[in-house]
Amino acid sequence: MHAHCVVCGADHPGGLGLRFEPAPDGSGVRAVVPCEARFQGYDGLLHGGVVSAVLDGAMAHCLFHLGRVGHTGSLEVRFRRPVLVGRRADVRARLELSRGRVHLLRAELEQDGEIKVRASAKF
Asked: Of 49, 53, 77, 79, which residue has the fewest beta carbons closer than 10 angstroms?
């Protein structure tokens, strides 16, 4: 969607390159997160800032999918378990509520069948 975005941009040479697609049930969007070692913080763990960016990007793409545009006003991230590098993860986002120009969204990152991180945001 944005060529130079660190999360989804095809023209960002060091970016994540995520490709968001509509969820099969139409509830939002999803993407595969490769969790490459080049994005680690502590040894073997995906950096928390990278995880937060992935969740934020998923929620923005959820809005794009619904034909809306917004900017992150607030973002709350709840880390439940570490995200491991070298293993695939899946990110999902959905719209919870819209009131005028304000949109509330939720996202989660799952790895090995377990929800590792949850986020909510106001756009």
From this structure: 49
* Residue 112 to residue 114: CA distance in whole angstroms: 6
The single residue listed with the structure tokens 């990110």 is: 91
Low-confidence ranges of the chain (pLDDT < 70): 1
Structure confidence by residue, pLDDT tens digits, 101-111 = 999 999 999 99
Spatial distance between the Cα atoms of 64 and 83, rounded to a whole number of angstroms: 26
CA–CA dist 14, 107 (Å, integer): 24
